[in-house]
UniProtKB/TrEMBL annotation:
The lineage of its organism: Bacteria, Bacillati, Cyanobacteriota, Cyanophyceae, Chroococcidiopsidales. This is Transposase IS4-like domain-containing protein. It comes from Chroococcidiopsis cubana SAG 39.79. GO terms for biological process: DNA transposition. It holds the Pfam family DDE_Tnp_1. GO terms for molecular function: DNA binding; transposase activity. Residues 141-303 form the Transposase IS4-like domain. InterPro entries: RNaseH-like_sf, Transposase_11.
Length: 390
């Protein structure tokens, strides 16, 4: 267990800086859970037990310990994670922070509401909430407190841009972001949204005709017919690659750049992929409790942050080619960090003793494939005057 003890003490040093632990034993158990997740590459309490070094002899004892931790009401997820992610973002710098809101359904029974910070092609969790809910569409009052809490964790005087899909299309959210939090936003809306242009007849977005690659920019209009809201701005387009219709609403004047900015939202999809089929195998978990799932998200969030920062430092120190077979970066920072940790455990490399994320421009952007790069280059839009569909 010499190798696991090495990473265990490193995690204790990094996570122990937070003074919010009700019981120091909670920190010790969390560290072993992170180690189990990294080693086994899946969420399974039974598979994690083999990597725990303690006085207990039987695997069942370790399993009960992990299960008690997940179901322990004394473990307040946000109170523990908030100082950790706040410290991680404190070194962000002057760059704009892009937050992405999204929801994910688990077994058609639980809804995971997540807000993450976009980071170099992926996203790192900032805050979340798990509720028993059979739909991914949720009302603003369910996550209002989550947004308020997250706003206190961000660096002061840093511009914030919030991105979200159609499930967050709510005028209450737009008003709260702009007037209460001072954030900018790019939110996708549905095609049945009513637009009220000044001095003209109201119409729905689906009444507008868009060919592939067409874009329409609307400035200073009100939306919704029952209780008009605004003035807001919209960027409408039909994606030439996916053929999807994009209806993006913004608090700032829209341009073609608005569409590119909204496209950054898809980075959180990669985060969910890392947590599910491409990484942690969340959907294979047998946990069926909202609070226990929220604590399980804490384990995944800390693991993601730890591995992403390791990958960040691997690139920063010029050691990427030691863990990445590609000439240009082909793996995410999380995957680079994961491979580096394996090297620490097998080759005696050293951990990077930090949990701080750097908000500077990515020094080594990923190029996953020439085909994917070509598709990106094909995504071009041309602004046209709109015409109504017949």
């Amino acid at each position: 267990m010499a190798n696991t003890s090495h990473i265990y003490h490193e995690l204790l040093k990094l996570l122990g800086q937070s003074k919010t632990w009700a019981d120091i034993r909670h920190l010790h158990t969390l560290s072993w859970m992170v180690i189990g997740l990294i080693y086994s590459e899946c969420i399974s309490l039974t598979k994690w037990t083999i990597y725990i070094d303690s006085r207990a002899l039987f695997a069942q004892s370790h399993q009960r310990r992990l299960s008690r931790w997940l179901h322990n009401p004394r473990i307040n997820v946000q109170r523990l994670y908030s100082p950790i992610i706040q410290a991680a973002l404190s070194a962000w710098g002057t760059s704009e922070i892009v937050l992405v809101g999204d929801t994910s359904m688990l077994w058609n029974r639980y809804c995971l509401i997540r807000v993450s910070v976009r980071y170099r092609g992926r996203a790192v969790p900032v805050g979340w909430r798990v509720i028993e809910h059979k739909s991914s569409s949720i009302s603003f009052n369910v996550y209002e407190q989550l947004l308020r809490r997250i706003s206190r964790l961000l660096p002061i005087n840093t511009k914030v841009r919030f991105l979200a899909d159609r499930g967050f299309a709510d005028t209450k959210l737009m008003n709260y972001l702009e007037h209460n939090l001072g954030w900018h936003y790019r939110i996708r809306v549905k095609n049945d949204l009513w637009v009220l242009p000044p001095g003209k007849i109201p119409y729905q977005l689906r009444d507008l005709h868009l060919n592939l690659g067409d874009a329409i920019l609307l400035q200073g209009v009100k939306i919704t017919k029952t209780i008009p809201y605004g003035l807001v701005n919209l960027a409408l387009a039909r994606d030439p690659v996916s053929h999807e219709l994009w209806y993006i609403i913004s608090d700032e004047p829209t341009s073609l750049q608005t569409l590119r900015e909204y496209g950054e939202r898809f980075d959180i999809e990669e985060e969910f992929l890392d947590e599910k089929s491409n990484g942690f195998q969340l959907e294979k978990s047998l946990i069926r409790s909202p609070m226990a799932l929220s604590r399980l998200c804490l384990v995944m969030a800390i693991t993601s942050l730890f591995l992403t920062v390791q990958g960040q430092e691997v690139v920063k120190t010029g050691k990427r080619r030691l863990v990445d077979c590609h000439t240009f970066r082909g793996n995410s920072y999380l995957r680079l960090g994961w491979e580096w940790v394996k090297g620490v455990l097998s080759r005696g490399w050293r951990f990077f003793s930090t949990l701080c994320l750097c908000g500077d421009v990515d020094p080594d952007p990923a190029i996953a494939s020439q085909k994917q790069t070509q598709k990106f280059l094909e995504r071009e839009f041309q602004v046209r005057n709109f015409s109504f569909a017949s």
